[in-house]
Amino acid sequence: MKCFSKRILALFFITLAGCTSAPSVPSPAATEPATARVFKNTQVSLTFDDGDADNYSIRADLADNDLHATFYVVSGFTNSNGYMTHDQLRDLYNDGNEIGGHTLSHQKLTTVRGAELEREICQDRSNLVAYGFDVTSFAYPFGHYDNQARQVVVNCGYTNARGVSDGPEQIPPQDAHGLRAMPYIVSDTRLPKMMRYITEMDDGGGGWAIFVFHHVCDGCDPYAIKPEVFSKFAKWLGEQQSNGLIVKTVGEVMNEK
Description:
By secondary structure, this protein is of the alpha/beta class. It has one domain (38-255): TIM Barrel. Helices cover 36% and strands 17% of the residues. The protein is built from 8 helices and 10 strands. It has helices spanning 2-20, 59-64, 86-94, 114-130, 147-155, 191-203, 227-240, 250-255, and strands at residues 42-50, 70-73, 98-101, 137-139, 160-166, 179-181, 207-213, 215-216, 224-225, 246-247.
């Protein structure tokens, strides 16, 4: 009887020890990895307005991540203080980036008429062609244009023109000379927001997100992106290309349509 009682008591303590032990935690290896997003019918274009000198600093970010961008250049400012030189533009072009027009002196095209309007648009393109660039894309300064300005852009040989609002654009776009862009990227635009522009567009069925950048610097201008933010964005875009995201210049996208 005593032996039986001892056995019962031993079983009781063994059971109690099992109940008070820490619950088991699945090992990290047992956790399933997150499913990578697969992009469908989703394209991105990186565009830079004005030809600011600090834009040249992203050359390595683009090359390292197999990206190409469109640089809309005010040819009358080229080689002057604060703007890229002919040689820098040629470096970017030889890397596979696109050089586009942005008028001769950055005029609002709704405020100039006649010969002056034609000079702003056509002479700008002629200058860039003379530098040795294949120039087919144009961006309206400040996004301002009307039917007259649009027609001059067409007459001067541009096959497409970009505004600065109302994006994302659809594929193919309804108006090649009125391309819609995402909101300006400014100094307080954060990386997650830029990523959401793309993922939310993809969730909605796809489209074309045309990003508008100006300066690349830390605090030099309200219309600027910090270099480290752009570097992270470029890296993310480069990685997502293996998941179906298409990143091309504006000219490349339009030439396919």
